[in-house]
Known about the structure:
Layout: E1 9-10, E2 13-14, H1 19-23, E3 41-47, H2 48-62, E4 65-77, E5 95-99, H3 105-111, H4 120-129, E6 132-137, E7 143-148, E8 154-155, E9 159-160, H5 169-183, E10 189-192, H6 197-205, E11 208-220, H7 229-240
Parallel strand pairs: 8-10
Antiparallel strand pairs: 1-2, 3-11, 4-10, 4-11, 5-6, 6-7, 7-9
Helix pairs in contact: 3-4
InterPro entries: Acyl-CoA_N-acyltransferase, Acyl_CoA_acyltransferase, GCN5-like_dom, GNAT_dom
Region (Disordered): 230-249
Domain N-acetyltransferase: 95-227
Amino acid sequence: xxxxxxxxxxxxxxxxxxxxxxxxxxxxxxxxxxxxxxxxxxxxxxxxxxxxxxxxxxxxxxxxxxxxxxxxxxxxxxxxxxxxxxxxxxxxxxxxxxxxxxxxxxxxxxxxxxxxxxxxxxxxxxxxxxxxxxxxxxxxxxxxxxxxxxxxxxxxxxxxxxxxxxxxxxxxxxxxxxxxxxxxxxxxxxxxxxxxxxxxxxxxxxxxxxxxxxxxxxxxxxxxxxxxxxxxxxxxxxxxxxxxxxxxx
Length: 249
């Protein structure tokens, strides 16, 4: 989940981007220094409204469009009382939670679902500066599951090896890392794919709530096909109908 996640911080919570703010993106059309419009531009999970505006700008300037569109819901920690959920402790003779070390980078990267996009070197850089936790098997010190802070308050959604799932490791890691991120002065948030019901349920138990929808993809120039108009319009209409899911704490 590292990269260019674009969020608006309003005091101690994430806020929705307004239409007035999105309209100001028209200034980007005149930008030719920060952006090289003739080269592909990759954007990690970014507010869906921003991505739709960028798609329109890219199409106008260089006959390009967004490809490889992947959706992710941004869940933000908003209910501190729910973070104190009492969990069943890990069996003392089975596993233990420890801070991640650089020696764990390969195992972390092997478990990461987007390892084709993010390199092992990225995780080395993150772990040199940011904290993370792992659940280690006591029998052979094998890394069974991990979670790591990313930029600002961002958190990698925990990853667990298949043979260690359904043991409660994930929620233990998520709770421990969320508390640490808050202690470090950040607002914790995670990206959860819409189809990932297990992660959504886990983080909701700990006080996370959906703030907005985001999109990851690459803007590529000179490939726009007018026949794609209908599909793009349907995607954007679907995006605009996604209201913020807000629950009382």
